[in-house]
Write a structure and sequence with these properties.
Blueprint: H1 2-23, H2 26-50, H3 56-70, H4 73-85, H5 89-117
């Protein structure tokens, strides 16, 4: 049953990303999706492991399925390399730094939010 939950949540994550990317295009969309996905993952993992409200099957569906399909590390990597190949080193550094630091901060914020609820 867990695999079915993960697959269904993965479909939802993929569709959510598609919809979000239609709203915010390009690198900004990728950055926003990665930040939102990191915040969501931090919250879910902390809340789900700190309470009995979320079952292991649902936690797997939300983290592996939804967040795994929603976030865009491969796109981030390709877009970063494209900026580097184009010699746009300043924008590449800004984009990579904002994504990496921003996603770490987002996970910390998601965890902190979950801690407030526990």
């Amino acid at each position: 049953m867990r695999i079915l939950y993960i697959a269904l949540a993965g479909v939802a994550g993929t569709l959510a990303r598609y919809g979000f990317e239609g709203w915010v295009n390009g690198r900004r969309g990728t950055l926003a999706v990665n930040l939102l996905g990191s915040l969501t993952l931090g919250f879910i993992v902390r809340y789900a492991t700190g309470s009995i409200v979320v079952t292991p099957d649902v936690r797997a569906a939300l983290t592996i399925g939804f967040c795994g399909a929603f976030t865009t590390m491969s796109t981030f990597s390709y877009e970063s390399m494209t900026l580097l190949w184009d010699g746009d080193y300043g924008r590449a550094a800004l984009y990579m730094g904002a994504t990496i630091v921003g996603c770490l901060v987002a996970v910390a914020l998601g965890t902190a939010l979950a801690n407030k609820l526990l």
